[in-house]
Specification:
The protein has about 100 residues and is α+β, with helices and mostly antiparallel strands. It has a four-stranded mixed beta sheet, covered by helices on one side. Helix content is about 40%, strand content about 25%. It has one domain: Glutaredoxin, CATH 3.40.30.10. Strand 3 and strand 4 form a beta hairpin.
């Protein structure tokens, strides 16, 4: 199973808008089921050196970062968590479809 990783800056006053952005992204039940059925979910602070290595050097983590990794650690998708339920569902469906085709 691929890894659904969300990285946030625990020293940021809003913790990279973790609760707001991820809450909106994962709002729909269908999104939650797709994530549960197709991914291993990991929530990691930027202080974790493995997680930090996945954060682009120009990303200050004002917003939390979503990274999907295959089992070999290759990045399938990496982008800021979009605080929108429709976009969350669309993006998760897109990744699930690409994984299913592989």
């Amino acid at each position: 199973m691929p890894i659904f990783l969300v990285i946030y800056d625990e020293s940021h006053p809003s913790q990279s808008k973790l609760y707001y952005s991820l809450g909106c992204f994962m709002d729909y039940y269908t999104t939650k089921r797709l994530v549960q059925d197709h991914f291993i979910v990991v929530l990691a602070p930027k202080s974790d050196k493995d997680a930090a290595s996945l954060v682009p050097s120009d990303d200050p983590l004002e917003n939390c970062l979503w990274v999907v990794l295959d089992l070999d650690g290759k990045i399938i998708r990496r982008e800021g968590v979009y605080a929108n339920a429709d976009e969350g569902l669309k993006r998760v469906r897109s990744v699930v479809a690409s994984i299913s085709e592989a």
